[in-house]
UniProtKB/TrEMBL annotation:
The protein's name: NAD(P)/FAD-dependent oxidoreductase
Molecular function terms from GO: oxidoreductase activity, acting on the CH-CH group of donors, NAD or NADP as acceptor
InterPro entries xrefs: FAD/NAD-bd_sf, Geranylgeranyl_Rdtase_fam, Geranylgeranyl_reductase, GGR_cat
GO biological process, one term: phospholipid biosynthetic process
Superkingdom to which the source organism belongs: Bacteria
Oxidoreductase recorded as keyword: yes
Coiled-coil regions listed: none
Swiss-Prot/TrEMBL keywords: Flavoprotein, Lipid biosynthesis, Lipid metabolism, Oxidoreductase, Phospholipid biosynthesis, Phospholipid metabolism
Keyword Methyltransferase: no
Length: 352
């Protein structure tokens, strides 16, 4: 049996950030990741706002290009430019670097390793069919939208956007991200996010709406790429296809007993934009620090401070975004008239 202070499940931005911070405060940490290669396949549009630079050092290797702002395309044909500075990442490199930082801090990192079950104080992890017993004083679930750890405390995401994305060549370089609202993209939107000579082009649609229409997500995305090709923005020759779920139901309960949730597993993704990298890194760092301090002081009840602290930072905005999402979905047939009330670049989003 292997004994640790903290077991962290999932080596994405949330898990690796939590691991580094916990190790910095002296905890013995095991970080496990089910994928064979950390950060792959990429299931993300890969944009981060500049504000994250105050929380995490990002290497030049993981930045593909700088972004000046966003163009929002409304259903009536209007295009609105906004100042939204940030960066397009190579998420594969970004995730690997965060995990390497954790390893350099003394964290034990195991890839291709599943967290299979929990029985009382024992957690069972599985690598290549070999089951290993682990004990940990604190468990941090950073294992994504369908979190195994979240199920242990009955705190699970139930509301999702399903996204599908192509990598396609650009006709010419861009320094703005572009977002498109359309009746076909129920509960979500289409995006064109430039990455040097190529772009991430995708659509996100409410998960349960796909079963209620005769249109497949793939056909909707192909139609969208065709429109962008006709507009002279991209070449219709996809060379990479990815898909994934984005939790949009708002924050979950993130602490129970000795278990904490971070990132997508915690519902910390923005319910309107679907963005979650900044929250994952910041909340991960908070979780790691508080978990380590709770162990040092032998006071597991301190873990609730994590929920208080991250909600002080993000709670109000995530709750507002969830309210806006409910309004958006229930009034989708009036998309032309309500989109400015429900998208974050518009003044109406904050004051109506």
């Amino acid at each position: 049996m292997l004994n640790y202070d903290i077991l962290i499940v999932g080596a994405g931005p949330a898990g690796s950030s939590a691991a580094s911070e916990a190790a910095k405060y002296g905890a013995k940490v095991l970080l496990i990741e089910k994928k064979k290669i950390i950060g792959e396949p990429v299931q993300c549009a890969e944009f981060i706002p500049k504000l994250i630079l105050s929380e995490v050092e990002i290497s030049r290797d993981s930045i593909v290009q700088e972004i000046k702002g966003m163009r929002t395309h409304l259903p009536n044909g209007e295009c609105v430019e906004s100042y939204s500075p940030g960066y397009m990442l190579n998420r594969s490199i970004f995730d690997k670097e965060l995990a390497m930082k954790a390893a350099d801090s003394g964290v034990e990192v195991r890839i291709n390793t599943l967290c299979s079950s929990k029985k009382k104080e024992k957690i069972f992890i599985n690598k290549n069919g070999r089951e290993i017993d682990v004990t940990a004083k604190v468990i941090i679930g950073a294992d994504g939208p369908k979190s195994t750890v979240g199920k242990w405390i009955n705190s699970v995401n139930r509301d999702f956007i399903i996204g599908m994305q192509y990598s396609v060549p650009l006709v010419s370089s861009l320094d703005f991200t572009e977002v498109y609202f359309d009746q076909d993209f129920f509960g979500g939107y289409g995006w064109l996010f430039p990455k040097g000579k190529s772009a991430n082009v995708g659509v996100g649609i409410k998960y349960n709406s796909i079963t209620k229409t005769d249109k497949s997500l793939s056909s909707i995305l192909k139609k969208f790429v065709k429109v962008l090709e006709e507009d002279g923005k991209v070449k219709n020759s996809p060379f990479l296809i990815t898909s994934g779920l984005i939790p949009v139901g708002g924050p979950l309960n993130t602490v129970k007993d000795n278990i904490m949730l971070v990132g997508d597993a915690a519902g910390q993704t923005h319910p309107i934009t679907g963005g979650g990298i900044a929250q994952a890194v910041i909340c991960g760092k908070i979780a790691g620090k508080i978990a380590a301090c709770a162990i040092q002081k032998e006071d597991i009840e301190m873990l609730i401070d994590y929920e208080k602290e991250w909600k002080d930072i993000f709670g109000k905005e995530l709750e507002r975004a969830h309210t806006k999402r409910c309004f958006l979905e229930s009034n989708w047939d009036k998309l032309d008239s309500i989109v400015k009330k429900c998208w974050t670049v518009f003044r109406e989003y904050y004051y109506e």
